[in-house]
Amino acid sequence: MDTADNKQILFLPSTSEDKFTDLDFLFSCATEISPSSRVTLNLERAGFITPSRAVVLVLACRYINSITHTKVFLRNISRDVQKYLLRMDLPVGAHEWLEIDNLGDDEWGRNPHTSQLLEMTKIGSTQDVEHVIARSENIFGHWLDKSALNSLLNSLSELCSNVYQHSADADGVVLIQKYEKQSLNVVNVQVAVGDLA
Description:
Layout: E1 2-4, E2 7-11, H1 21-30, E3 38-42, H2 51-68, E4 72-75, H3 79-87, H4 90-93, E5 98-100, E6 117-123, H5 126-140, H6 146-165, E7 172-181, E8 186-194
Parallel strand pairs: 2-3, 3-4, 4-5
Antiparallel strand pairs: 1-2, 6-7, 7-8
Helix pairs in contact: 1-2, 5-6
């Protein structure tokens, strides 16, 4: 962490796995941030971003914002990571807490009913959970039998409901993305849900 003129720059260490040691580091540094600081996250070493890492990044920016009352500035993000963050709607969904330097255009086509992903969605009400479940059914429905699908949707509904009912966090978020390896006939679906309560 570099500190100068009430600006604090945090360098996110690189990692290609979801061990979260780099993001744990980010949260531990955030506890030492001065309320008068302007915080910049340098993501030049950040590689591939998964839904779980994206959710933790949003939560870290929210946490820092709760201390400084200013947006966290993200800089030195590779174009591929920028495109992913744009496609997952992070700059829009998290605009209250973060700002991205030199943000390009979303070059990936948009389909609001895609069966590949659920963009960052805030979970603050029953209607939000219903939206998440409807989109999740579209994502998982092609790959799971009815019994497995119902079990998964019930679990996801409970998980998302816990965000606003038990943690009382009106700004909890969920992201879902499906990765396919067609040559191997393998599907990997990542679900990430998080809150700050």
